[in-house]
């Protein structure tokens, strides 16, 4: 693990910080303002940084991407939009798309002219994604799509979706899936926002009834959808490694400040030995996460891929975040419950992962999400058990509670 920044990295960080000081919007109130902020970041070269240059990206190193995200977290900068477009859809098109698809879609993803969502999960196909049932039937010059997707982040604002659908029911389930680009703005696509535990509606149900997908929008060959979904690696891999830790640190400092000001039995909470011990534990966990992030970045810089080790990182920070937020609410007591109007010193006042100006209650509720999306904690444990510890592979009987 390399703990030192090169002189170039230090200079780059300074340049990013100066740019943010001069360009940070005071507030981003709606989608159009977020799109404008996205566009500004892209024009400055701070978005799509890891994409190859020939497709409009910056060809930047993982460390440079991490520095930009980290400085944005420090500056409390609003999140850009189209994260799934830039993180998943674009890289899929770069690797598996035709020249025509690259020319048609890539620049508009980077500039957020067209917003994208990911249409993978279904009511009965989440962890077991290959069980998906949405069908795409060949109708000559196009496919006819029928079925339902769920938990579609950004579905309500998306212009296009990266779709996995079944094109063959007679072959083993992994082999009958194909990948498509689907226009979300058509009569056969009905998007219904879902109300989340946080009160917001970032994700949706998507119902497709005789929806149309052009043949020219098929990605890869028929039946290759599963392999495409598995092998596509994002280019923004340095991504949030450091930024996440910076956000934790700033939340932690606010929590300590709140514990200094809140009094119980006439004493500042910060003087209570149990509170101190619990805060100390969280602080040491943040430091562990910091070194884990630096280890990942070192691997990426050397051109190595963390592989199954990524499951350790994801399991570790997502479970930590839940413990952290639980402690925050325990310490803040009733103040932690406020979604609006918390005294300034106790307010979280940071952009959460999804870009809403947050409260502790909101961050606490949102922290549940990290242990579910992109592979739940149990799935990460399976990967660690099987691929790192070499334990026996899970069987179907294990999955259905020993009954199969
Ligand atoms: C905030 C958020 C955003 C999301 N955005 C998107 C999106 O944009 N597009 C999209 O397609 N999907 C999205 N998802 C869906 C996400 O990918 C799924 O929720 C996830 O794959 C889990 O699937 P599931 O919800 O069907 O749960 P299930 O797979 O039904 O799991 C239920 C429980 O069983 C456990 N479990 C399942 N299988 C096993 C096993 N083999 N061994 C041990 N335990 C097991 C799980 O860990 C979990 O606790 C999002 C989810 C969240 C929370």
Task: Describe what this molecule looks like in 3D.
It is globular and about 75 Å long. With 404 residues, it is an alpha+beta fold. The strands form three sheets. Strands 1-4-5-8 form a four-stranded mixed β-sheet. The longest helix is centred in the C-terminal third of the chain and has 29 residues, at 273-301. The protein has helices at 7-23, 31-43, 62-74, 83-96, 99-110, 225-231, 241-261, 273-301, 309-332, 334-337, 360-366, 377-388, 396-399, and strands at residues 116-119, 135-138, 142-153, 160-166, 177-183, 189-193, 203-214, 218-219, 263-264, 267-268. Flavin-adenine dinucleotide is lined by residues 117-118, 120-121, 126-127, 151-153, 203, 369, 372-373, 376, 378-379, 382, 394, 399.
Count of separate DSSP helical elements:
13
Q: Overall 3D geometry? A: globular
Radius of gyration: 22 Å
SSE order: HHHHHEEEEEEEEHHEEHHHHHH
**Class from helix and strand fractions:** alpha+beta
Q: What separation lies between the terminal Cα atoms?
A: 45 Å
The main β sheet shows up as:
4 strands, mixed
Strand content: 5-15%
Name the bound molecules: flavin-adenine dinucleotide
Question: Mean pLDDT across all residues, rounded?
Answer: 89
Strand order of the largest sheet: 1-4-5-8
Task: Give helix % range.
Answer: 40-55%
What's the total number of strands?
Answer: 10
Unreliable sequence segments? 349-357
